[in-house]
Design a protein that fits this description.
Helix content is about 45%, strand content about 20%. The protein is of the alpha+beta class. β5 and β6 form a beta hairpin.
Length: about 220
């Protein structure tokens, strides 16, 4: 294992990075490297970690490169990927149906590509998929969400959130001079995930809790 602190007299060339704070590409200054190589019987290929700071906002991030065989039988490094902070969104709960999780994944992909109008459309598709999965009979999303409210599957603020997402999705689906902005798209992603968690995760956990408490109460009364 080799640690390099500082670069001596010769400064390394700047690296192009995707800065999460600047929300775009920027040049960065390398601050140091750490090479992790196997020792003894360890069976992994060497890894190179590079600490860089954005030249625009000075935000740090850690890049990772894997060793790879290049032309001429020599070893080199793969293109760097961001190790920290994580560049991936948190994974959805496995309780969420795969078809609906796929729609959310595409929504996140659109957001990462700065396609904010497309993000809103994919969030709307996610809501449509959720309604179908929950057995609603209405095709119109407005009416389908109303069915979920009437069945007490969503209530109060959750219903308001869903309607706001529906309206934003409509804005994205139809031509308008007003584009969907980044903040609205990001809020749409977070609210949609909150709705999915409520429907598929928290509701199920609450029902399990209620069943367990009912069973425990019956057991106590029989003793």
């Amino acid at each position: 294992m080799t640690t390099t602190n500082g670069w001596g007299a010769a400064s390394p060339p700047p690296m192009l990075i995707q800065c999460p704070r600047c929300d775009g590409h920027a040049l960065s200054t390398q601050q140091g490297t750490y090479e992790l190589a196997p020792e003894g019987d360890e069976g992994f290929e060497p890894l190179l970690y590079t600490l860089v700071s954005c030249d625009k906002c000075r935000t740090p991030q850690l890049l990772r490169q894997e060793s790879v065989m290049v032309a001429g039988g020599h070893w080199g490094w793969t293109d760097p990927t961001r190790e920290w902070p994580s560049s991936a969104s948190a994974p959805l709960s496995p309780s969420i149906p795969p078809s609906i999780a796929r729609e959310m994944s595409e929504a996140h992909a659109c957001f990462s590509a700065k396609l904010y109008t497309a993000t809103a459309v994919m969030v709307r598709r996610t809501l449509e998929g959720m309604c179908v999965d929950q057995g609603t009979s209405k095709k119109a999303l407005f009416a389908a969400l109303g069915e979920l409210r009437d069945a007490n599957k969503i209530e109060g603020r959750l219903f308001d959130w869903a309607q706001a997402l529906r309206v934003l999705g409509n804005q994205g689906a139809h031509f308008s001079k007003e584009a969907v902005g980044r903040e609205d798209a990001q809020d749409a992603l977070e609210l949609a995930e909150a709705l999915l968690d409520y429907i598929y995760v928290f509701t199920a956990k609450y029902e399990e809790f209620q069943q367990r408490r009912t069973k425990a109460s019956k057991d106590d009364s029989s003793n």
